Amino acid sequence: MIPVLILLLLHQSLAEKVCINISDYNFRITVPHGNITEKLNHEVKCENDGDPCFFGCKPSNKIWFEGSSACLNASVNVGNLTYYYTLYEYTNCYQCQCQETSILTLFHNLEGIDHGMKQMMGLICIKDLCPDLFRNSHGVKKAFIRVEKQIIHHIMDTSQPEDGSFRSHRLKSMSLNIFKINNSNLNVSEATIPIDVPQLHPSNKSFVPEVWIPVNALKAIPQEERCLGLVSYMHHSQFQFHNETVSSMVVRIELSRNHHLQNLMPPIKMIFSVKKQEKNHSQLLCHYFDEQDFDWKPDGCETNIGQDNVTCNCNHATAFAVLLIRIPIKEAHWKILSHISYIGCGLSAFFSASSLVIYVFSRSHKMDVSMSIHVALSGALFLLNSTFLLTEWGATVKLEWVCEFVAALMHYSLLCCFTWMAIEALHVYLLLIKVFNTYYKHYILKMSLVGWGLPGIIVATSLCVQNVKQFYGVTQLTMSDTNQTNAICWITDDSFFYSLNLVYYTLIFIFNSGILMAVASSICKMKRVLKTHSKHRACTDGKSSGVPQKFSTSCQSGFTLLGLTCLMGITWGLAFLGSGYVNYPVLYLFCILNSLQGLFIFVWICLLAKKHRRREMEDKWSSTPVRTSDINIQ
Fold first, then answer.
1. What domain range is 79 assigned to?
2. Rounded CA separation 483/286 (Å)
3. Number of domains comprising the chain
């Protein structure tokens, strides 16, 4: 067992005592508000009233061994989310809840410890005892990475080996090799020299990468300051902010505090053994971890994929890994699609706003339910297109909440669009399929509560769990041929994106497609009836119906189906055809149709307004008043 964990003596019992028991090489402390256990396999668990916690103690001269068991007198002081214990004649201890505020305070306290390895052991122990917090809190991850880097440099400064040798420090989740490179090591004819990456376990030797450092870059550093540190990680959860798929071991390369390896020529060469690529629509790319933006980026790295390994040539030193990513869009296509999207969304936003203006100033249409639903969908599209135009700008603002707000607002407007598309389909069903008993009290109010309220509940719930899991923020898009990234404000968690948005739209798509097929079937039946009636009338009158009339009827039916397809958002289903791989024809069709949806609905509303005016004129001149239903589709 790790010696420092044996010193985690905490908390009072019912009589202000701390009881320790070591049996079968399992370590256990019993306290009134929690328990800490360490098993033979180094698995440590701390619980306080069912919640995870962290225990820490200052060193003690007391030695515990197999079979030890005792209860120690203790005094307890309660602080903010922290319990402080004084075990008389032994040590002082504390217990903290696994919450962001208390854990960040612990990170700050580690800076007061002079011994670098004790700092690192304490840091790793905190991470192991609060896994859920480290998994979900970006703030804790960022602080952990900063403190870990400081501790690594502290260890490099205080435990430098002799010239030409190296020193290893091994922990269960990471290992550190410190090399002191002298001039004799650099007197080689090759442009690069191999550096041994620390091995965590003998069983993973084939998984440890090979690293070569350029000689000329090391020669530029004075010999007394030529200290190089290589870190290998067993677990890399602290480097995952956006659910990246890391397919190799993470390796960190560090120099002493005053020196940096950057703009290297030749570059650092690393050969990673990687897991097999199982998805045809994904590819392996070398990335480095940007400790300013806390994101994986491919800048400055070239990728060469072999049969069972990946070679990375990078012109700077930091943390590296091979990531499995979805095949990105090429830069040329990305620019064209971006122009189409921005122009289309700008036009769509303008015409959606025009639809709202037409509705507001056209009094005769305000009581028409169909027109109200069309305009509500236009309003949702206006909100979606407007926020889309702000996504890249929001990613450049330093205030994080701005990008989070833009991403949340765009998500809300997208869900509103999907919901109002479903309401359009439901309305069509009530009026064309279920034609009887279609009166509903406060119909438009109920539809509005669903159309605007349901997406609001979903987004508000997602924002409420921000302290546990952050779903909105800056997302990086990568272009395949240049490895350049483009930052936008959107959903950062892929699992959340697919489990919510995709499932939500899939259900709506199935429902709307069913309604559209039922409407198409009804139109076909009506055409057959009209055709039979026309033939009968032609036989009676002795005339044949002309081809232009048939063509006009077919075109009218076709335009009706196209209009309903647009209103119901069936064109969004093109995303299913392009999922999994980059299908450029589908992407172009998807961008053109859906970015111009606001324009199509504007034309539909204008045609309906014209039809309304013509019908009003006919009703005005007709001697028999025409009575319309409370909810009807035009």
1. 3-97
2. 10
3. 3
